Amino acid sequence: MSVASRNVAGATRGSHGFRGSHGDGDPAAAGRKRATGRRGIRIGPVGIRFRPRAVLVALVLLASWTAVGAIGMFTGTLDFPHERVWATLLGEGSRIENLVLLDGRLARVALGALVGLLLGISGALTQTLTRNPIASPDILGVTAGAGLFAVVVVAHPAALSEVGIPARVGLPTAAVVGAAATTGLILALSWRAGFDGFRLVLVGLGVNATAIAGTSWLLTRATLEEAAIAQRWLTGSLDGAEPADLWIAAPFAVLGMVACVRQASSLHAIRLGRELAAGLGARPPVVEASALAVAVVLAAAATAVAGPIGFVAFVAPQAAMRLFGTAGPPPLAAGLTGALLVTAADLTAQRLPVEVPVGVVTAVIGAPALLLLLARYARRLSG
């Protein structure tokens, strides 16, 4: 078996937990699929193949998220009887119960899941494109760029009112523009006739440091109140989550999931390298550009509603890859893992003796994971 054949076989064996493919109607291919013992369904041009391990892990993650979400709904500073929580969820709550349980706890749990989903998918896409486990949006500086532009809006709210833009619309818009501008700068500085994962990470780290420095300078120029608001937002927090935030994040979550299903086969081929992917029928420039655009938009949307929650986009894809037993970061599985990670981290942040922003908890989890990964790569290079 040739090297290329072994690569293809290995990558196919470790495919996404949810894999899309175009129908071919080939009886031989159908026979090969039956020979693998895997089951699947086909909806139009998209086929989804199930692996027992992926299904089992996905069910465990969903059950875990449901348990964490239930704890978040049924417990809190104000104590409500369980029957009143159920009645409120069924639309029979009083005004106070609706305010605390639906607009407060339920919105926070749901927003945490959506933000984790967005960051997980975004991180898996960037790590797949660069074939580098460190290349997540928060490490490369994409979220730092979004935060820089958002702090400009927070520190100068009068600029929005002068042009007639509400702050709730201006902040997400600034985050998306900042993420796009930062990504464009990173690509312009690192592009040398194609992507190079190592060069991209080095440039991204430099841009990340520059964006953080710019944010710090803006904070020194802001008033004490504006700096306090901006600093809390920059830490990444779900405190103050509102149902309106769900309407901002939900469409992007749907966009990300649909894009991942549609591009599953192409992303799978990209992991093997641009030349081999082109030989397999994929169009690397188109796949890379579209997947990168999706990753940037998802990271910007998550940052816009909750601030730059660090390390989720880095940890979730790597954890999902190991849990699901795949050869690379599986985007949808990474999104599911990210949803559980952010929801559990936010619940932990609320239950500490002194409540802290969720970004502090994810940093405590993610920083050792980053150091461990760097140490493993250093040992591999030296060995």
From TrEMBL:
<dbReference type="InterPro" id="IPR037294">
    <property type="entry name" value="ABC_BtuC-like"/>
</dbReference>
<keyword id="KW-0472">Membrane</keyword>
<feature type="transmembrane region" description="Helical">
    <location>
        <begin position="138"/>
        <end position="159"/>
    </location>
</feature>
<feature type="transmembrane region" description="Helical">
    <location>
        <begin position="356"/>
        <end position="375"/>
    </location>
</feature>
<comment type="similarity">
    <text>Belongs to the binding-protein-dependent transport system permease family. FecCD subfamily.</text>
</comment>
<feature type="transmembrane region" description="Helical">
    <location>
        <begin position="106"/>
        <end position="126"/>
    </location>
</feature>
<dbReference type="InterPro" id="IPR000522">
    <property type="entry name" value="ABC_transptr_permease_BtuC"/>
</dbReference>
<feature type="transmembrane region" description="Helical">
    <location>
        <begin position="54"/>
        <end position="74"/>
    </location>
</feature>
<keyword id="KW-0812">Transmembrane</keyword>
<feature type="region of interest" description="Disordered">
    <location>
        <begin position="1"/>
        <end position="36"/>
    </location>
</feature>
<feature type="transmembrane region" description="Helical">
    <location>
        <begin position="198"/>
        <end position="219"/>
    </location>
</feature>
<dbReference type="Pfam" id="PF01032">
    <property type="entry name" value="FecCD"/>
</dbReference>
<protein>
    <submittedName>
        <fullName>Iron chelate uptake ABC transporter family permease subunit</fullName>
    </submittedName>
</protein>
<feature type="transmembrane region" description="Helical">
    <location>
        <begin position="291"/>
        <end position="316"/>
    </location>
</feature>
<keyword id="KW-0813">Transport</keyword>
<keyword id="KW-1003">Cell membrane</keyword>
<feature type="transmembrane region" description="Helical">
    <location>
        <begin position="171"/>
        <end position="191"/>
    </location>
</feature>
<keyword id="KW-1133">Transmembrane helix</keyword>
